[in-house]
Amino acid sequence: MALELQGTVVTFDDARTVIEDGVVYINDGKIAGVASSTDPAPDGFPKAPRVDTGAYVYPGLIDLHSHLAYNTLPLWAGEGAPYRDHHSWTREDHPDYGSTISWPSRVLGTVEPEALIKYVEVKALVGGTTSIQGAPHSTRPVKGWLLRIVDVEQLGPLSNPVLVSALQKRVDDLHACGETLRNTGGVFIYHMAEGIQGSAVLSEFTDVTSAGLLQPGLIGVHATALTKDDFTAWEAAAQTGNIVWSPFSNLWLYSKTTDVVEASKQGFRISIGSDWSPSGTKHVLGELKVADIVNKNQFDNRFSDLQLCEMVTRNPGDALAVAWGPLLGRLAKDAEADVAVVAKRRPDPYRNLIEARERDVELVVIRGKPYYGTRASMRAAGAARPNAITVAGEKRSVVVKQPGNPDAQLTWSQVVRRLEAVRRDPVKAWRNAVDALAAWGGPLDAPEAPLVLYGDMPEGDTGLMAAAGEVPLDLTIPPLDSLEHDADFFKAIDAVDVPELGHLRDFYE
Amino acid sequence: MPLADFLARVQPLSLASRYVLVAQAQAIIEGLYVHLRLKRAMHAVDPVQRLRLLARRLESMSDLQFHAELGGVFRSLRDLHTTYQLPDPYRGHVATLGFLVERYFDEADKPHYVISKAERDLAERGLRPGSEVVAWNAVPIERAVELNAERQAGSNASARIARGLEAMTLRPLRTTLPPDEEWVTVGFRPPRGGNRELRVHWLVYALPGSGGRAQDPVPTAAVNLGIDLGREATRHVKRALFATTKARVVPPQDLHAVLRFETVRSGRTRYGYVRIFSFNVTRARYFLEAMGRALARLPQNGLIIDIRGNPGGHIPAAEGLLQLLTDRPVTPVRFSMTTTPTALSLCDATPELAPWRDSIAASVETGEAYSQGFFLSNPAELAAELPRYLAPKVLILDALCYSAADIFAAGFQDNRIGTVLGTDEQSGAGGANVWTHDLLRVWLPQTLGALDGGAGFRVALRRATRTGVHDGVPLEDLGVTADQVHRLKKLDLTSNNEDLKRTAVEILQTAEREAAAG
Predict the structure, then answer these.
(1) Which of A134, A206, A235, A439 is most buried as measured by Cβ atoms within 10 A of its Cβ?
(2) Residues B438, B442, B444, B447: is their CA dihedral positive or negative?
(3) Sequence-separated (6 or more) residues with CB below 8 Å from residue A299
(4) Which of A169, A170, A439 is facing B210, going by the closest CB pair?
(5) Spatial distance between the Cα atoms of A95 and B32, rounded to a whole number of angstroms
(6) The pTM is what?
(7) B377 touches chain A (CB under 8 A)
């Protein structure tokens, strides 16, 4: 499929070129060229529909830290916050973690895995996301992702280019990961040192260091407990260190965030991740605003608007380039054709992206195909059988169903209906699903095998009922987290004492 | 379908696929198999070295030789949980001669082998129930059973004999090799006397599939199972071949396939009798609710629980049932893991196994071979608000009882719920929670790769140790020793276990008298 997207093209290429009236030429999932609209199309480019967006054309946004299995859940105000570290809120003395996060996620991932996946993918699409990290474990590979899922994406020549762990590993396992990176390449996205400075989780960084993992392929998630000395040591070993910053989640859980200023001074490449919805923003476009708030209020504008925007485009693209080559996060010839088209509200393209809301996202293209956008742009881009969806009061179109992919057989309205049906009677739904699973005695990787998703976070205390395959009879599943930063979201923020996060409302009013 | 026709469908595995299978077998046995130390000591076996040798020698083997050798490594463990599962088309298929043989003992304690069920065409040819088998391919039947028992993985002599006998006429092809012979010449004495011989051909029967794909009768993705897959498969085939039409095909959540309730009379007194054919149920609470309702309807003078031949199944369901039988809190068995680096990696990756993690990690310093033990169920919670059956109870078991059934029997004995009456001295002695290679791959993708052709493995991941007076004693290989043994009589085989039930009632009456005497 070929496509031409015309608009103000914000390339994030090496020269950070912005073409006021440019065209992105897409063919076969790749960018065939980027040029001024007055220049001819690349040699051999086939006849293709041109979408005159009248908007900014950015690389698709990359969310380098999420936990997809949990992203139907609303913000979680756990007892005892702010915490010292990530152990503090999953321990047995916080039973509400199990009942309000682990159980609902487990039930939805068992009963309606396809609907769960599609819901959280659409939530990311609404924020212009084209690549996201945080795939759940599953009984078989999911067939029919909409987004580019970093954990399982096969780009480049490596057979297993991306290793991921949200749970902490022991030194010998870390050493094995280090050996893999050293010998075969690839990246390792690893949650570490999530807690305040001085907390015990700093030992996780010590383990990474001991294991010889301070290499260019290491992408550290959170690293909030790290100090200047730690960043210095990391940078010295890895040349360019990579960290993923999730300021909303950090502030929500710990009232403090990663010292990205110090990391930046040391030469780190900083990417942004929205983390998960129980303690994060709806998508990485929302998280970009939190980064902007923290940049202004805590970091004295250390980062320019361009630098902030690079944290959701070029920087994660470069971090992943160790595994795949420089294929994402930029609009350049031969890069992957992942594009986000965003309405022009500001003269500066970077400030425009930072301040963009859900209603401003007009078209999202992944692998050269339109998945989400306004009705007009989706039609113009030749979207195949899109479904209607309303986002922030605006009518939009989304492609959810993909003929031929067994895990993409639902329409958008079916996705929502299925999830709501589980919410109405989770115990009955769970029991039916467990019965169906118990009836399957075939191979788990068969296409017709039932799919089950498992969260990638600690379970906390789910009790022996979980081990017995039973669900608590009083289980309730919270309302589906909305697709946009809405009144309920801000109400939840108002209910906790994290003033910094309250500024997020300014972007949406 | 005739055995020869079935075997003609088999596609040999490639050499590369064989190497992968052997490597994966080694990874599982060395890294995750919880009974490895026990088996090395108890049976003087070295499965890891055998696998190394197999890897060197497999090029020269035929397809069937390879399956035999790999299966032989697993059989040497004498562990029905830990098995090599042959590739397609073996999954979901059982070879059968179309009749069943059972054993009883006469007054001189001499064993006799009697046809208990036979398909109609065999019966029409003279091989009808009640016939006594005397020879098998011209080998005296007792010796033939002994030879077959040696090829079985049962973990004690009673279990091997019981399985050897069953395998004379039924072979689950997923876990055992197909028969070498296409037919068997059965020498037998019909009920009315005389001596006859009949040639009986092996036939292959398919278990119900799903979506056009052959299925094991046990879930692939379950985390709380303790079951002998092969015996569960033969149980399904027996049901399909010999049960009434109405009972043949039932959905997995239909408990009619696993439960039967009766009343047993002794004089004017009526006792309850429940036969639990399998604990392979989909959910614990569902099973317990059904049991609770049924137990409340049975006579409340005493209860006979008969689990003979029960291959196990859902461990929490079995343990939850214990709580329906007493008003005292039940202490279930504890489960522990091996302390290898692979086991630790599995616990690191699997939230469900998080409780086992710390003691495995500490074993580097403590030198412990097993992790701390934890419960898999909370029987009181599972049985909450369900009625209790408090009159005297007797549990009947045999050497074919396995795993969750062993665990149930151990809990019955250790929590002093009643008397254990065996038709063999011991239960089948399977004491573990078993996971499939398929499921382990979800959590250990770097260690465990895909297997070609639908082949697979099951492995005992968490071993069960007993509580109460047997605190800390493993169930594996030791099983549950019956408090009292009743060898089956001819009357039992021909009259619905009449003599066995009489013995059970006597035990209940004794218990009742003792209770009345305080």
Answers:
(1) A134
(2) positive
(3) A260, A261
(4) A439
(5) 31
(6) 0.92
(7) yes
- Nearest partner of B205 among B177, B179, B181, B170, judged by Cα: B170
Say how far apart CA A353 and CA A291 lie, in whole Å. 13
The crossing angle, in degrees rounded to 10, of helices A171-184 and B341-349 is: 90
- CA gap B77, B44 in Å, rounded: 9
Q: Tell me the pLDDT of chain B (518 aa) as tens digits.
A: 999 999 998 899 999 999 999 999 999 999 999 999 999 999 999 999 999 999 999 888 999 999 999 999 999 999 999 999 999 889 888 999 999 999 998 888 899 999 989 999 999 999 999 999 999 999 999 999 989 888 776 777 778 888 889 999 999 999 888 998 999 999 999 988 899 999 999 999 888 777 678 888 899 999 999 999 988 988 888 888 887 655 545 555 578 789 999 999 999 999 999 999 999 999 999 999 999 999 999 999 999 999 999 999 999 999 999 999 999 999 999 999 999 999 999 998 888 898 999 999 999 899 999 999 999 999 999 999 999 999 999 999 999 999 999 999 999 999 999 999 999 999 999 999 999 999 999 999 889 999 988 999 999 999 999 999 899 999 999 999 999 999 988 888 878 899 999 999 999 999 989 888 87
Residue A445 CA to residue B338 CA, distance in Å, equals 27
CA distance B352 to chain A (A): 7
Please answer whether residues B440 and B346 qualify as being in contact, where contact means their C-beta atoms are separated by less than 8 angstroms: yes
Cα–Cα distance list, A27 to A11, A41, A54, A368, A395 (Å):
17, 12, 21, 7, 28
B386 and chain A in contact, CB less than 8 A: no
Q: Which of residues 256-285 of B touch A (CB under 8 A)?
A: 282-285
| Closest of B117, B145, B146 to residue B129, by C-alpha | B117
Q: What ipTM does the predicted assembly reach?
A: 0.90
Dihedral (CA of A484, A487, A492, A498) sign: positive
Residues sharing a CB contact under 8 Å with residue A50, sequence separation 6 or more, in sequence order: A4, A5, A6, A23
Largest CA distance in chain B: 72
- Whether residues A441 and B316 touch (CB distance < 8 A) is answered with no
Token pair belonging to A394: 């605006």
CB contact under 8 A, A469 and B454: no
Identify all chain A residues contacting B213, using CB atoms and an 8 Å cutoff: 442, 446, 448
Residue by residue, DSSP assigns B14-47 as PHHHHHHHHHHHHHHHHHT-TTHHHHHHHH---H
Is residue B476 within 8 Å of B155, Cβ to Cβ? yes
Return the closest-CA partner of residue A400 out of A15, A59, A64, A120.
A120
Question: How close is the nearest chain A Cα to the Cα of B410, in Å?
Answer: 19
Residues of A in contact with B217 (CB under 8 A): 441
Which neighbouring-strand residues pair with B377? none
Residue B456 pairs in a beta bridge with B85
B71-101 burial, b for 16+ CB within 10 Å, e for fewer? bebbbbbbbbbbbbbbbbbbbbbbbbbbbbb
At A288, the amino acid letter reads L
Task: Tell me, yes or no, if A173 comes closer than 8 A to chain B by beta carbon.
Answer: yes
Q: Distance between CA atoms of A490 and A88, rounded to whole angstroms?
A: 25
CA distances in angstroms from B98 to A206, A507, B115, B134, B147, listed in the order given: 66, 76, 11, 17, 21
Is A459's Cβ below 8 Å from some Cβ in B? Answer: yes
Nearest to B424 by CA among B399, B449, B406: B399
Residue A497 binned pLDDT confidence (cut-offs 50, 70, 90): confident
The alpha carbon of A4 is separated from its chain's Cα centroid by a whole number of angstroms, namely 26
Does residue A478 have a cis bond before it (omega within 30 degrees)?
A: no
